[in-house]
Amino acid sequence: MWKKWFTKIKSPEKAPPEPDGIRSIRTTNVFQIINFELYVKPNLMVMAFGVCSITLSAAYLLYLRMNMDPKTYIAISEDGTQTLVQKKSKWE
């Protein structure tokens, strides 16, 4: 009965913290700079920047494609120069 009062009360052991995915792995700074998106925490500003940049890039490529004359193509000559040439029919 007396032992019950004089023994130390042990606190429950705390579990080790959960690993934070790939951020918890030891890597070099070069790897972290090259693979920036793996180490940045999810962020609304980063996501908005990425979506805007992809959307603007796709819109610019679409704009270039829409303004190109469908009857012309870019020909590369033997010396490496590029020229805009009219498409010709095989019958001509």
Secondary structure category: alpha+beta
Show unreliable segments.
none
Total helical segments: 4
* Shape summary: elongated
Biggest sheet, strands in spatial order? Answer: 1-2
Compute the separation of the termini in Å.
Answer: 112 Å
- In angstroms, what is the radius of gyration? 32 Å
Percentage of residues assigned to helices: 40-55%
Topology order in helix (H) and strand (E) letters: HHHHEE
Beta-strand residue fraction: 5-15%
Mean pLDDT: 80
Largest sheet: 2 strands, antiparallel
Say how many strands there are. 2
Task: Please name the defining characteristics of this protein.
two-stranded antiparallel sheet, alpha+beta, UPF0708, transmembrane, 11% strand
Polypeptide structure, described:
By secondary structure, the protein is of the alpha+beta class. The protein has a domain at 42-87. The protein is built from four helices and two strands; from the N terminus they run ααααββ. It has a two-stranded antiparallel ribbon with strand order 1-2. The longest helix is centred in the middle third of the chain and has 24 residues, at 44-67. It is elongated, with a radius of gyration of 32 Å. The relative contact order is 0.06.
